[in-house]
């Protein structure tokens, strides 16, 4: 069984009480997102600077709370599974199991640990991509309009269900294109940021879990003399804790790198 090692601390300004600070920041973020919605849906660019500053201030702390919540989730899963596994061992010592039943008794707690580790990785990838898409919104709104695909409600000649379905949203854009847009606008390179290698490996693992039962793509296989063409990504709670810390470091670096003159 995998147990948590040193989990690492907060990346954005120390511990914050989730109960009070989280609720207050949640309300702040809702107001910021409402301003962003106006900027996006209506194409009102003068709203953007105010919304951008608002989101930037709340995002850093919301990210920290989110990462701490993921650590807390893992803490509880590991503790519960540990108690259950210990109980299995104690029952086995008293002769409660034959060998087959003893082996089967480990299945459910170990499976929960595996599911929890993968769930945390999915959440981390969603957090990373959400932040990158948020950063891309302003330069994306400035791109040349595509014929028949308006980017805001003010671009519509009429307002009805059919017209609304033609509005293009940033979520439709390919992730690779969004990364290029962010890098060009903020004059940065994601691959040069701290923990970028860990983030790239995390996204590859999550895609493999989602689309290929964890099996690695051929280009990701370790081609050593004893190569195994059926290499799979593995996940455990120690790895999940490490990835939480890596994502925190990456997003902190991204926030700093994108806070220059281009951010306004």
Biggest sheet layout: none
Count of distinct strands:
0
Globally, the shape reads elongated
Please state the average pLDDT score: 76
Give the DSSP E fraction (strand runs of 2 or more residues): under 5%
User: By helix and strand content, what is the structural category?
Assistant: mainly alpha
From N to C, what is the helix and strand string? HHHHHHHH
The percent of residues in helical segments reads: 55-70%
What is the structure about, briefly put?
The protein contains eight helices and no strands. The N terminus is likely disordered.
Structure description:
With 264 residues, the chain is mainly α. It has one domain. It is 62% helix and 0% strand. It has eight helices and no strands. α7 crosses α8. It is elongated and about 75 Å long. Residues 1-23 have low confidence and may be disordered.
């Amino acid at each position: 069984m995998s147990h948590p090692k040193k989990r690492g601390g907060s990346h954005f300004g120390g511990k914050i009480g989730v109960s009070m600070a989280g609720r207050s920041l949640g309300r702040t973020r809702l107001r910021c997102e409402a301003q962003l919605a106006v900027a996006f849906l209506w194409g009102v660019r003068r709203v953007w600077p105010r919304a951008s500053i608002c989101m930037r201030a709340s995002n850093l702390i919301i990210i920290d709370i989110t990462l701490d919540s993921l650590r807390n989730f893992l803490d509880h899963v590991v503790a519960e599974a540990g108690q259950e596994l210990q109980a299995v061992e104690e029952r086995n010592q008293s002769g409660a199991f034959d060998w087959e039943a003893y082996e089967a008794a480990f299945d459910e707690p170990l499976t929960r640990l595996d599911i929890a580790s993968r769930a945390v990785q999915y959440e981390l990838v969603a957090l990373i991509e959400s932040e990158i898409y948020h950063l891309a919104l302003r330069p994306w709104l400035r791109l040349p309009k595509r014929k028949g695909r308006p980017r805001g409600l003010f671009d519509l000649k009429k307002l009805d269900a059919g017209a609304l379905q033609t509005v293009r949203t940033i979520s439709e854009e390919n992730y690779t294109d969004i990364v290029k847009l962010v890098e060009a606008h903020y004059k940065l390179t994601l691959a040069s940021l701290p923990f970028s290698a860990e983030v790239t490996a995390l996204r590859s693992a999550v895609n493999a879990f989602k689309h290929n039962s964890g099996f690695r793509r051929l280009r990701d296989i370790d081609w050593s003399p004893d190569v195994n063409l059926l290499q799979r990504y593995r996940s455990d709670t120690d790895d999940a804790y490490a990835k939480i810390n890596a994502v925190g470091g990456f997003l902190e670096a991204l926030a700093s790198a994108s806070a220059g003159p281009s951010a306004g």
